[in-house]
Amino acid sequence: MSNxxxxxxxxxxxxxxxxDYSVLLSSLPTADxxxxxxxxxxxxxSNYTPLHITLRQNQLKKAFKVYKIWKTEKEYIAHxxxxxxxxxxxxxxxxxxxxxxxxxxxxxxxxxKMLNYEYPAKxxxxxxxxPEAADLPFAKKASILAYPSSLEERTYLKENRGSHILTLGSxxxxxxxxxxxxxxxxxxxxxxxxxxxxxxxxxxxKFKSVFISRYHTIVTTKDDEIxxxxxxxxxxxxNGSTEKPLFSFTKLDDDKHSKIVSLASSENHSVLLDDEGTxxxxxxxxxxxxxxxxxxxGGRMMDxxxxxxxxxxxxxxxxxxxxKNVSIVGCSSVHTCVLTSDNVLYSWGLNLGQMGGSKISxxxxxxxxLGESGHIMAKPVTLNLSHLDVEQIVATExxxxxxxxxxxxxVLAEYSMRTFKIALPKAQNFKEPxxxxxxxPRGRPHDIVDIKCSNSYGNNVGVLFSCGxxxxxxxxxxxxxxxxxxxxxxxxxxxxxxxRTINNCLDFDVGAKGSVxxxxxxxxxxxxxxxxxxxxxxxxxxxxxxxxxxxxxxSSFDSFAIIKDESNDIxxxxxxxEITQNYSHYSPASGNKSVKPESxxxxxxxxxxxxxxxxxxxxIRSQNISIPVxxxxxxxxxxxxxxxxxxxxxxxxxxxxxxxxxxxxxxxxGLFSVDDDLLTFKMDNTYDSKRWSILVGGKASAELIDDVIxxxxxxxxxxxxxxxxxTTRLITTIIEDSLHSAKTNHHFTNLLQxxxxxxxxxxxxxxxxxxxxxIIHLSGDxxxxxxxxxxxxxxxxxxxxxxxxxxxxxxxxxYHVELPDITIAAFQPILKYIYGVPFEKTFYKELESYSFMxxxxxxxxxxxxCDELCIIPLKIYLESVLSKFVNGGxxxxxxxxxxxxxxxxxxxxxxxxIYTHIGILLFKENLSMVDECFxxxxxxxLEVQTNSFKADSTSQQTxxxxxxMTGIDWIDLFKTNIAKFNSHFxxxxxxxxxxFDLTSTSEKRSRRRSSTRRASSSHQNSxxxxxxxxxxxxxxxxxxxxxxxxxxxxxxxxxxxxxxSANSSAIEDDISDFIEVVRKxxxxxxxxxxxxxxxxxxxxxxxxxSEIVWNExxxxxxxxxxxxxxxxxxxxxxxxxxxxxxxxxxxxxxxQKQRKTIVDISSIxxxxxxxxxxxxxxxxxxxxxxxxxxxxxxSQRSSSVGGTSLPSLxxxxxxxxKPQPKRSKRRGKSTDTDKVKYTxxxxxxxxxxITPYATSTVQPVNEIANVFGDKSGEAVSSLEEQxxxxxxxxxxxQESSKVKKKMKSGGNGNTDLSAIYTNVNSMPxxxxxxxxxxxxxxxxxxxxxxxxxxxxxxx
Length: 1355
Fold this sequence. Notes:
The chain is of the alpha+beta class. The chain is 24% helix and 19% strand. Strand 10 and strand 11 (279-284) form a beta hairpin. It is flat.
């Protein structure tokens, strides 16, 4: 590679497929020039930005680096480049995150079952996959953000996945549960465990539903708990208080109900239904809407202030519905209704017509609500709906909605019942596609799955369809009589129409005025203030992870609540805390095998029987070359008295817990007898000796004695399976208890309690065989005692410390271990593990008073200590616990700690979570942490993790792309030789012409404007060039540089144009290059016109007898008659090849009326009774002077003879003009190389043959040839032109004077026109017409021809 500096032109260069330098750097996995990547660059083929490309290719490190540089250095100028780079969209309208999520959903071919650790490892990944993804229940798939495909899956997702509550908006009545009264512009979030006040152990409880109003919020959970916050007046909270508000979510202490089936709430009261069919109500009871008398004996005649106290502040059972089997409940602020299983609707409260039935006329109204009178129904009113299959009830103050199967809606309003069918809404501009031209899916599901309404009058009813579409039933004005005015076809408007599955609506809520908040399958939340007003996405770091599954809003659309699913459901498998494996190698059954360190380090996770392990690359031999560790020396020896060479060893601490009576006899008398001296045990030395020698004899044979001793030691070391049947009774007598190993665990627990309770006491006072022999010095001069034998066998760290090379006792005969960096709070769980305490009780007490973050920090510090002390089983359990603390705000610090502590299971769990919530990497709070702490190993493992969810590489075929090719320096090739670079993609017989659409979607929509636009607007803007893509993203680094390999881009408005540094006008649109657009029975778009340039032919307009067009030259003197002998005419170019036109402009079709506005025809007198004005009169001149086009006055016409004003041939009345034949559809030609200007004309006639929309160039045209139909357009000799012009002017002056005299003599309009046409007959022939092609239609002027003369005859 040359050391010469590359020309910076490569920054402006694009290859044959429209990729620039930034796109190239983004595509190459090995390129690390992050700062050279323009984040706003895009390719012309897919409109992908660098973030699109890097995320699509799983180059997560590069994507992060590009975003980090933009965030820290370029965000402040983002408004100049198109906004936030995460909002940039590709050709399909997808942002980088949207495209990544769609690709994620499409790539998942298998789902993880759990994370499992084993030694030796069989693969690089610890994920255990589910066997068949197709047969998995949706609950397994939902953890990887799978989308629901049925109503049951939608219900599961909404009711069983909520892990967080998020609130936003107005907090006037503490309804947001933030702990304060301040409104929230940013989302407030609380976890399910935080709201319960329980941090450890983490629960599996989930949020089930949420309801928020202007005064309070009610939340239910899967474990049938109810949490409330807000204003407690009117008893709406149900906590027994009416005066004290709740600032944060508080559990409602009510154990009266069983499992919650349904809960409905209004702004003032609530109704609950449990699985036993029992109904509970609480809250305001001014209208008897609780279905029982108020506890404070309120009455109907109270004032408003007293009515607020008519309530019941705790849930109370409604005995009226006992044994009625209620299935659905609903309520509004003034009434309550329930439906039984036999479809009988019960309603009670203030009847304003929403209960159906007839209106009570013989009794005076009891109360008024919103100006309407009603009767209080203390006892439920029944309505039989047995003929309907009811699915949902929604109650408002003036209407009750009963949703039934088959998209049927029954409305109870105005004391009547009406039934409607609801159709799937369609867009206002919807047009049924032609099934013969377009594939139209006919099976689109459109069953109604939910309806919502918070308007008191029942207006603005939101309807959710199974296809994810939302419709709104509404009228312009709220009215109690609105539902009686509706026809059978309800006025339903299309509110939300998803164009992809990820945008299907999962849940929604509606405000009183028709505002909507919704959440989609992908978890995004949108808000809109009305139909056709657009949706705003709610942004925030708390919504970037997880997905929203429930939404709710108050009736005023000021407060919002969201339930989010951010669960980390991938289980990390762990084994119980077993001590068997750590001591079994001391039993006689082990055969005195050596102890490998892996058995101590990995405990039950080590599988040392397998010499080989499987990996993805095949079979490899396990590199288990560790040196065996020494066993802890025995301090007890059993000697067969009949055969003293038979000796078996043991440890005092193992006998102490199981053979208590044996040791007591040996200590007191030195002898212990079993079964009438069948076996005898006696001390061969003193009891106080450090090493005991016990002789075993008696009447039994030597073989039986050996079997009993071996069986006894197997029991002590927890290998019960090796006991012979004939020795079981004798062994049971010796140990006086069960042979189960649980007794050994219990013994170790007692020893642990001794160490923890007496750690600060004098150890010498303890019994010798219970006495700990080790003192551990911790942080803060804290001392903890322990037993060296247990430490030696349960931790490889202590195993090394107590080895013969390192083991030393102090002056007090105790071992002293220094751990100055570990606190007592962190070491106690480790000590509990070492002594065999179950994992669930290891650090339970230490975390009782900790907060969420304190618990997380404590567990992470403990994880690091376990790694340092090589306590792998406890470490794996900590990984399992920590995985439940992983969420969007903690995953990055947990991942970094896992990487530092070599916690591979937790690390992989965090990577899977980031993989499914990629936006976490781009959190503002995480940017600096990720940038500073993520090393190449973490990035590479994270990028590899993204491919693990696909099928195994051995079962599918993989394809490599051009950026994966090795041996080609793409960057240098792009900089130095773009032609060779392009040849790698297009060469030989595979040549084709790439076609790019350079305009954005919004420009395509705005290109086709209304045809009623004034024609003068084009005339006014003539001479200016406008870019086709003003609002679209421009190339990242200026114009194109394709001098070495030009790109041919097909502009849909022009022919193929070569784009290089000198010519970039092909992407611009010159509005002055117009051609006439002819009205046809079926209108064709301008794109179709541009695709068929060969069909564009010159327009030859017919000569009309009623009007003559005057072509105004902008450079001419507007005070005098434009002469045919002007200087421009003499310098006319004779090159006819320049007449070829390229159609490159946007075309505007204007109507006849619009074209008439270019030339003012106000001089035509429309009144037949007025006197005609003669030539040269003042009124005629005034009319001429006032003639204007849009923003530009028309020039005056004056005669060249005697200074007399020239006559206007348009002075005749418009009513006298003869009907004109249809204009020709042929189009004229224009030259795209000349600067152009518009020609004024009158659209209703074209006698001079001047083409409408034709343009006059800077080079003067042959006026005579244009007027008289010379198609060739060739200029005649200048002398002949001069002679013809002189002869024409002479004739014109003579004939005009004659016509003027006849006009003055009087007569009607017909006479005037006859005089004009008669004199026209004598017009001289200006040119020889042998080469003139005449129009198909004859000219009514009937011009008289003259013989052509030679130059000699003329002179």
